[in-house]
Sequence to fold (302 residues):
Amino acid sequence: MTEQLLSIPTAHIDDAESVAALLDALMQIHGDEYEFAMERWAGEEDVHPQPGRTIYRFMIETQRAAIDLHPGEWIRGAAEDGHCVPVEGSLSRVVTPHSVDLWPGDVVCVDGNDDRPAILHGEGVYFEVIAESTGYRAARVGLLRNLGSIPGGCAAYPGAFRRETLPPQRPDPDDSDRRGVNRVNEHTLDMRVDRIPPPIRHFHGPIPLGEGQMVNHSETAIVLPRSVYGLPEVDKVDEGHIVLYRRPAEDKTDTVTIPVRPGSMVVTPATTEKVMGHAFENCFAMLVAIPGFVAPYNMISE
Fold:
């Protein structure tokens, strides 16, 4: 692991230099099994399938943005407008061609087995991860606004906004590769200090692959504006911050506090050489987990 990861990968989408450093840090953590980008688009853009790979695009900012949908494609969080039929849980199948608006927090996925590109319109900013295709069911689009909330973890208070556009799929109990089919998961949470219980302090570790092998884990927090979803602001003057624990298992007092605002990005690594913990305070954010929310979970005690 290089010296760069001894610092904390942080960025803002309007600061190209910090974004480049954060993307480089993610490449150092995960190696050539993954590709990362943060891009802007304007106009029509075709996202073509890559054989054996799945493209995940996490919407950060959108303006008049939309995606075309076609019969047979899957949606997570479809509207009840007759264009789709429910299949399982929050998944539906498209039955008539149509377009849907893209909001910050939505996720567009293009699996290598798809036979057509995803076609985007409008403009916006997205964070992109490209990973190995597995048996994981990644819908063509996950619409955050239509999903139900499942309070827990860092947003466990009653009525918490906690929604999963790429929920984890747990491996079988006897599977030595604890990733299962997960390569990327995501959920979006409103993590607040003015609700009970407040966000938890915790850290993850690398994920076992069997035969003594491990694979690195990371969580990338991407802060969004609460106003998009009509959420109440936190009763505090600051815009929010993330407390990172640089040595959570050895010294819980070794912390750094990072102020954040919409567009901020912060990576928490968990590698065989460096494990950090975190607590999110007054943050509404997408949490992108690689290879997924299947990593060992450890509380940081008071």
In short: The longest strand covers residues 53-69. Residues 1-6 have pLDDT under 50 and may be disordered. The chain is about 5% helix and 45% strand.
